[in-house]
């Protein structure tokens, strides 16, 4: 009686929802390939108060909740269990305020990332989060999974873009922490409990986000190199010489060949090199911007760090290079079933990790191709292995995660754990860490009402 | 019997310590003015295992622990209670590894910040944390208080510089989380429990820290402006035009006059202006670096955002400007008793906040002077008020914190809460937030064995 909550029928009468199996079909699964099941109902609340009311009723009636954003996740975190109450944030899609003095946006969690970026750009500011699913992912999902993307090197991960948030806890309590200042040292910074924990500890309903000056121009180049050692030297030089550096994307030769093929592009260089870096800078439009970039590229060739360079002369040519980098979707469709790894490896161990893991993969699974690319500035390596047989997948995952663990790596640099990587979490986190994570989960979400079965129990 | 631990006498026989009141005198208090008391013993462990052993024995014998670093804190967090067991990290002072490929340093928590910066620079990398106490503060204390400083605008707060850590929990468990990669999305990022919580949840024993390319050159300028509105316009233009921007320090006229007086410097400008910005960029040594800076300063004057500019021609002249900015210590000694506020205020509310709070202060405490300066790029305002009478201090604090709260501000942007600001925490954090902070404190530190009486109970 303490937590008075509406009955389930009262909720249905007051909160927008869908309950027909046809309409709920698309709310069963995300993009991970994990098979979700039919929920009982999909609520589409329009306010934080409605989210809180749903949660309180589910507590009272002992129902489980699956939280959903844009359903673009790659770890199965948004997939429903049979009979779940789904809370979809997609109707909480308002950009509430853009503070053009302080560079802060206050938004509801259900705003589509691309819409947020456009709204901010119209005020001549910039929100630098960017990745392939930008047109359908929701900012709340980006934060709850601490999404990465192409510009982490310059602006940080999603975590670094969050100034504050409003959260509904598993007992329905609303925590308003919509802080707007960068420096706020008043004890435990609670927002970090909810960033990257994929809805296990709370439902993010609103966010205050950090904005950046709107870059007026970009420049891109593709550099061919002789070895990974040259890449790490180039990375250090680039970070030092180019304060505007926004992307440092590495592609190994076999990836470039496959990607050009699938993107219907000619190979960019006449010759063939072991490894390539796609470099981007973004900043103010002034002479010194392009001069500094060209001087750096000349330095790379003169110092023999780089072997060859392509500098696109038009936006179309630059886009064409990015299309090669982004052709991974097309490649993956052609090598099903596959595993797409998203690993963090300390740079100094990356050559040894790659050598060791590809040697075993080539020996044990000779019919599969192994493609390598990554956001190297962040130690983030993508390895895709396919075609495999379904029954081989678990063993391939076990092999790669165990090897990564041996090199002090992370089994997920950016995609998260969800349901799919839960069996492998032990390769990234010690027994003591898992115990502490569980203890905090049990403190805040004791009845496992939010997103049961994900990350840790 | 489950947690076997050495007896207190066995600890004394094996762990370096001091126990004479003369020697322990300096371990009673930090730089906050809070009066600490005489501890029972000061342990100076040299290894994580020794820290863990001390904690386990204190659990078994029900003794309280105060954790100490360089004793430079301004919130009373390191001050001992009578009879405490003090654990001083000062002997755990090894830089264990500097990874020159990935740009990562692995260090013990007791390294003096300045020593760390020097060791990193010798390997041609850069650790950008910087503030006045650099010669005596310890990196573990910097992390546990999430210290701020002069370069947050460019490199973030201490939190952003921490890749991973090793921590001893209040039951003696050692958590090894010395992660080396920037992107690591594997559930709850536990390090954030220990950053900024001032030793309430664990003792940080080792750290992996993020390094940056070593800047080869710096440039400084002092700009005079007509109003705070011009300062916010200048900030946005500077962030956009100067990717190398590392400091944006604002001084109001009355601060500049007092500071020049106490630093024995002439006033930098012939005329008098309402407000000034000390600007610094640091980066690669190339023509475009200085050209871009001078072009920006010209733009400021042409666009009438700035009224006048001083560009030092020598390092000595630049140092002289920074000495004015840093003269706050000398000023404070002359206005005792004083309150030195360290507030976070959203930029758009800052003029209204300043107007409101100084009007009341001038009316109620006409004998005190109010000086304003701050790291404005971060929304961090320093206000110092003195001379006051001792009995007036609490009311002045109450007034300023309550007013800051009304503008969505933070009562501590960088100095932390400790013992001194604990009574005012309610002005920055809601009842629900304080409850959650307490619940987590009670989960991890249930017997209040670490740093009792700080932040929340």
Short description:
Chains A, B: Keywords: FAD, Flavoprotein, Oxidoreductase. By secondary structure, chain A is α+β, with helices and mostly antiparallel strands.
Describe this structure in words.
- The structure is a homodimer of 457-residue chains.
- With 457 residues, chain A is α+β, with helices and mostly antiparallel strands.
- Chain A has four domains: 8-90, Uridine Diphospho-n-acetylenolpyruvylglucosamine Reductase, domain 2 (2-Layer Sandwich), CATH 3.30.43; 95-213, Uridine Diphospho-n-acetylenolpyruvylglucosamine Reductase, domain 3; 217-325, Alpha-Beta Plaits (2-Layer Sandwich), CATH 3.30.70.2190; 335-440, Alpha-Beta Plaits (2-Layer Sandwich), CATH 3.30.70.2740.
- Helix content of chain A is 33%, strand content 21%.
- Chain A is built from 15 helices and 18 strands.
- Chain A has helices spanning 8-14, 21-24, 48-60, 113-122, 139-144, 152-155, 158-161, 228-241, 253-262, 287-302, 315-325, 328-334, 350-364, 393-406, 431-444, and strands spanning 17-18, 41-43, 65-68, 85-88, 95-99, 104-108, 125-126, 162-168, 174-177, 203-210, 212-213, 217-225, 245-252, 275-283, 308-310, 338-344, 369-375, 380-386.
- In chain A, the strands form four sheets. In chain A, strands 15-12-14-13-17-18-16 form a seven-stranded antiparallel sheet, sandwiched between helices.
- In chain A, strand 5 (95-99) and strand 6 (104-108) form a beta hairpin.
- In chain A, helix 13 (350-364) runs antiparallel to helix 14 (393-406).
- The mean pLDDT of chain A is 95.
- At the A-B interface, strand 9, strand 11, helix 8, helix 10 and helix 15 of A face strand 9, strand 11, helix 8, helix 10 and helix 15 of B.
């Amino acid at each position: 009686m303490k937590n008075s909550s509406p009955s389930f029928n009262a909720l249905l009468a007051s909160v927008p929802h869908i309950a027909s199996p046809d309409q709920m079909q698309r709310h069963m699964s995300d993009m991970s390939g994990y098979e979700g099941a039919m929920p009982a109902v999909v609520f589409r609340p329009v306010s934080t108060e409605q989210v809180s009311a749903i949660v309180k009723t589910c507590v009272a009636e002992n129902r489980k909740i699956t939280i959903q954003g844009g359903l673009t996740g790659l770890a199965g975190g948004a997939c429903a269990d049979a009979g779940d109450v789904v809370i979809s944030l997609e109707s909480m899609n308002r950009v509430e305020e853009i503070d053009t003095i302080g560079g802060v946006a206050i938004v509801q969690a259900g705003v589509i990332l691309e819409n947020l970026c456009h709204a901010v750009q119209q005020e001549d500011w910039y929100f630098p989060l960017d990745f392939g699913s930008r047109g359908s992912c929701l900012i709340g999902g980006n934060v709850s999974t601490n999404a990465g993307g192409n510009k982490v090197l310059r602006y940080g991960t999603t975590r670094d873009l969050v100034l504050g948030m409003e959260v509904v806890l598993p007992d329905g309590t609303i925590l308003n922490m919509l802080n707007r200042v960068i420096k706020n040292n008043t004890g435990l910074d609670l927002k970090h409990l909810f960033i990257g924990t994929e809805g296990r500890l709370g439902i993010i309903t609103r966010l205050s986000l950090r904005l950046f000056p709107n870059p007026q121009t970009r420049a891109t180049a593709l550099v061919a190199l002789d070895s990974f050692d040259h890449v790490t030297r180039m990375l250090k030089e680039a970070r030092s010489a180019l304060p505007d550096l926004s992307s440092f994307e590495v592609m190994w030769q076999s990836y470039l060949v496959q990607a050009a093929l699938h993107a219907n592009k000619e190979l960019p260089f006449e010759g063939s090199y072991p490894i390539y870096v796609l470099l981007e800078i973004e900043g103010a439009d002034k002479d010194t911007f392009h001069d500094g970039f060209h001087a750096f590229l000349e330095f790379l060739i003169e110092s023999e760090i780089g072997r060859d360079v392509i500098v696109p002369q038009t936006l179309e040519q630059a886009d064409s290079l990015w299309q090669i980098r982004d052709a991974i979707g097309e490649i993956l469709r052609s090598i099903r079933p596959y595993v797409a790894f998203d690993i963090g490896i300390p740079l100094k161990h990356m050559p040894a990790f790659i050598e060791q893991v590809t040697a075993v993969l080539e020996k044990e699974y000779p019919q599969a191709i192994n493609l390598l690319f990554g956001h190297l500035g962040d130690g983030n390596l993508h390895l895709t292995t396919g075609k495999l047989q379904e029954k081989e997948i678990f063993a391939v995952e076990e092999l790669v995660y165990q090897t990564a663990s041996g090199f002090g790596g992370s089994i997920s640099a950016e995609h998260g754990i969800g349901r799919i990587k839960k069996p492998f979490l032990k390769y990234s986190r010690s027994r003591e860490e898992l115990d502490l994570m569980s203890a905090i989960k049990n403190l805040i979400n004791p009845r496992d009402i939010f997103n049961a079965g994900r990350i840790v129990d």
